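Quick start: read one record
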Amino acid sequence: MLEALFQGQKGYKIIDEKTHYWGNLVQSPDDYASVRTVIENYIEGSFTADTALLKSCFHPKALMSGYYRGDMDVGSPQTFYDQLESEPSSKSSGDGYQAEISFIHIAGRMASAGLVETNLLGSDYVNHFHLLKIDDGWRIVSKIYVDSLED
């Protein structure tokens, strides 16, 4: 499945995604669409610095860990929210932000997704998300990331 939004109304580009299902845990198209929607909302929230939208993507006890400019950070998404709120958004700055959903894997009530971002607040990132289906909705419970400056 290929979807491309080229600097259109939303101002960012989603290039492609690949989907894999394992064994007899094949999920319904509704589950796939719901996981994809969470990741798309993450993209939109990051691009526009809409922290309320981002918070709706994450479980309240979610973890967010990775490497930013060579320094390891382990904690909650709060630092990310604070950074987005303290700087002009990628949308308002006119930066050429792009996001590519590189994979979505679903197995039962858990899912993983990959996202590659270019030029989010001046940095490029590779992100891996872990999601759980909680009640009837999917939420990010952990995110690990590395920026382009990491060796």
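The CA atoms of residues 25 and 107 lie 5 Å apart.
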